[in-house]
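Problem statement: downstream parser choked on a complex file, so we are re-checking the raw output for the pyridoxal-5'-phosphate run. The parser issue turned out to be on our end (a line-ending mismatch), but while we're here, posting the original submission so the record is complete.
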Amino acid sequence: MRPEALAAMTAELGTVGNPSSLHSSGRRARRVVEESREAIAAVLGVSAGDVVFTSGGTEADNLAVKGLYRARRAADGRRTRVLASSVEHHAVLDPVEHLGAAEGAEVEWLEVDHVGRLRTDLLEKRLLGDPSSVALVTVMWANNEVGTTQPIAEVAALCAEHGVPLHTDAVQALGALEVDASTVDSLAVSAHKVGGPHGVGALVLRRGLALEPLLHGGGQERDVRSGTLDAPSIAGFAAAVLASEADRAVRTARVRRLRDDLVARVSAAIDGVTRNGDPVDNLPGIAHLSFDGCAGDALLLLLDAAGVECSRGSACSAGVPRPSHVLLAMGLDPSTAMSSLRFSLGHTSRASDVDRLLEVLPGAVARARRAGPSR
Ligand code: PLP
């Protein structure tokens, strides 16, 4: 966690007060929540009333996808189509699949090109077909595996033109790119991606957009998300958002230089390395590489033993021995997909970390290649 977030959260953990209580302690906690909401809203370019606190990105995505689908379909039974990019995080992918399997949604996976960028021409064709049958479109702002950023402004313009709400998962984009949530109808963010605590996030939801809640109870958060608010985590979230926005330009330029150096040096030192994702429009801290002829898992464990921690595919679904759906959607064959690793850099990364990787990676790749590729 960023020190600012840790300080804000621990200060709050020592106090009492439920933000929904009317007594003095409750009103004090409410003030912390509302000031945090205002700070986060200002960074995202929306008004405070648009921000709904959740338990994180996964809940925000579920709330948007299921909530918008159910509300839009209830208002008009013909709205059964859900258009979702084929490179979404599982927090979007799985609720979309659930709607298809259990609630009669007709799911259409939107194509991406070989760098993982959405084919907006094909989205437009699908919208033109029959916009009144579309419940929602969901396209992430930036991809968590390969780092490719999506043409969200163009997608938003297409959706607005056809009167279809757009949800975007901006969990990876916040803190890395400029995120203007006022350009979309619904947007998910998560505190732990910007140096805040785990287990808190938000859905930014345009006022007036009908959405069926997932949780029913005390009616907190505009009746959209019942449950006692976690004031300490929310305070830590806001402090992290403010700190990461304050140093975003300088930090991301530094991280981008480190990442570019990592990719150049690894490519020069080792044969058979391919970089995945958009080489220009991407997240600054992600280097996603395929290593011909070695199993990504084996390489990951060899690197871990040498003190270098990285991920195979999405960290959130690591451990599941399947090629990444993102890489398959980009057209990689399954065996190349299984020989890929994601190296992530953040605000604590230093040049010495890249040096250390270069010390151990060539030997680890040679060993993993002797063991052979994944079957
Ligand atoms: N969406 C994306 C793109 C992510 O990278 C993640 C987590 O890694 C999530 C959603 C889930 O967010 P959370 O961990 O806050 O539930």
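For whoever reads this later: The longest strand covers residues 286-291.
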